[in-house]
Amino acid sequence: MSDSLHSLSEDEELAAIEAKVRAALSRRAEEVEPDPNAYALLAARVVEAQKPPGRWVWGPRMRIAVASVASVGLLAAGVAAVVGGGVGEIDATNGVSVVVAPSSTGNDRGADADADTGPEADAAPPGAPRELDTEGSDQTEENGESTSSADAESGAVVTREEAAEAFLKLVGVGVQSVDVGLGGLPDDGEVVDGGPVDGAVVDVTMIPVVSRREGAGAPGPVIATLSLAETGTDGTVGDAGRFQVVEARSDQVVIDTPTADAALTGQSELMVSGRATGFEGLVEIELRSAADGSVLASKTATAGSLGELQPFGATLRLRGTERAWLIVRSSGGAEEAASAFAAVPVSYVGPDDGTDYRVVNIGPDDPDGGLNLRAAPSIKSASLAVIPPDTPVRRRSGAIPTVTGTTTWWPVVVPSSAGGTDLEGWVASSYLAVVDRVDSQDDEASLAARYWAASEAFISFAASGVSGAGDELVFSPRLGLGVALNEADPIELRPRRQADAELLATTHSRFADRSLAEIVVGQGEAGATVDVVELTVGEPRFIHPASRRLAAGYFGGADYSTTDYTGIDGLARRTHLFFTSEPDAPAVVFGVIVEMVE
Amino acid sequence: MGVATLTTGERVPPVETSATLDLPALYDEHYRSLVRLAALYVDDVGSAEEVVQDAFVKMTTGRYRVEVGKEGPYLRAMVLNGARSLLRKRRVRRAHNPEPPGLVAAAEVAGLARAEGDRLLALIRELPAKQASVLVLRYYLDLSEREIAETLGIAPGSVKSHTHRGLQKLKKALENER
Known about the structure:
Order of helices and strands of chain B: HHHHHHH
Helix content of chain A: 10-25%
Number of domains of chain B: 2
Radius of gyration of chain A: 27 Å
Largest sheet of chain B: none
Oligomer: heterodimer
Structural class of chain A: alpha+beta
Helix content of chain B: 55-70%
Distance between the termini of chain B: 60 Å
Number of helices of chain B: 7
CATH topology of the largest domain in chain B: Rna Polymerase Sigma Factor, Chain: A
Largest interface: A-B, 69 and 90 residues
Shape of chain A: elongated
Largest sheet of chain A: 6 strands, antiparallel
Distance between the termini of chain A: 69 Å
Structural class of chain B: mainly alpha
Strand content of chain B: under 5%
């Protein structure tokens, strides 16, 4: 390149590069002339696209037929195998790989399956039921098993849309904050990959998840691409019209370890690593139950920012035995309603930690008045006993849970209360909670410790601090709230006590009847104790649209919201989020209080 | 509704779109510049046109309700997303089916200025997506910071920082080539 920049100042050098960039872009662009018939083609496409939807139109399709598979989660490995290895032959009709393999099982579609590889293959309007084995469809909802799990177990159809929506809810992505598929699902779902997994027939549909934007005319970016596979009535790969998400990938978050469907035995910790970028240089790492989406463990880690992938790493504590989703979420992305994320399924059999559980979530109107202890992990299995609410139960040490549909079944022991024989059986995990080991006496020290522990677990801050240029600060996206400061914004800190007093004065009326715990506002290392501060920014902005319901009041004065959740210790908590701003003096004050809920 | 026939140079009647979208007007106003914008990413005109047509089709038939006056930012965002998506697919394809040597040296046959321009374009394409988009929108489309922010869904202040960092990276890359 030219040497002419050597003697120039920094600004002059950048100005020179600006000029070169401008010239290069303009020159290249001016070489481009659209097809003069483009409008005709476009109009024809629009007319075609506006026809009422009838049958699904699929893109290129990969059909791979082999034998059987033990776990849908293995599909992800199959995808990787094909992408990396290119197993199969080229289908001249659509240019994608096709493997025709032995047809030794009922799930095997074999070579004949390829005959319908075309635009109308598997045609059916979204949501329309297919004819299939409806064994067990007469099951009704009962305690211990949700309707959805009953549906899943009964072999009912689960469309791609339903599977994607259920998955997004499970991993904590608000379905109101995203659109699944660009312009309509599954038309834009792209069947691009598939893989031979122990001889199974595999179609993997790749569907983009697009973040919505606050007040903008355009959709936001693709925050993840879901891989969905079709399963049989027994939960393994098949063609029963039931789809299941097997992995979520993102350009902005790459999970290196654990790999999809990793099975961990006897480990008390899960090492997580990968590469990611986030607006604030942070990623949220969560382990969520595959059964009900409850958060089993979480951490915040630093990664890259401004589009540059940088390594991240964290260690999560494993408790008990679970099938779970590991989710890594980029930190709140400016005006986007949802952040980029990747997710992989994992399962683990933890060491026996002697954890006791109790029966919870049994409503007063429950017809059985308790939780069914079943002989096998299925709602079709006989009920051995009904366990009353609050009864202590113990998970069988080292026993592996079983997942059917959306229900995780735990093998448990119910100790006899009268010196008789302990009962053993299976229960749905969502009706168990860890027994509270914290002294339930509400002495002040105990409460403060518990409040603080809860606060600490749910709040993270960029490590960059709040003095000088380059600062960015964010609340945990899991709170649905983020405030980001640009590097050009001046930031002013006030002493803790002063701000503390002001915050209390502002919000005291709202909390007068509650014990205040920590007010956590400010900056600091992730997970560290932080001071209360007031932030003064050049232009107050409410950025994270996931909390759009809060935004209207945010600029006008004070706003307040609560979020209820259950901690990993099974105790109920309520997070109070409050914000104040002064329109004329653009100061933003925000705070979080976490209290225990009886 | 008549389906357009593909006759050379002949405009077809307007097609029905949603109540607020005037396809011919949008086409006249945006199509060419969007194809050129896409071509800065994907390099061949055919692919660029496909990306732009996809954006128009999605806007006129998709589930998004585009606000009046926001069609430009919407289309630009869709084109940028579509072009980047295409590039990603190409990268994956190339990783498993490398192009034979000899197909990538077209710039060498042109003059120095052209070679430098092509090199700059290649460097811009290698930037993180936001930085590349900001540079293209700013220096090709001459959009204001506010317009760029609206298109990319970022804060105006972020447009500045992305621009600065993008230029710094280009500067460093060029220096390394001296």
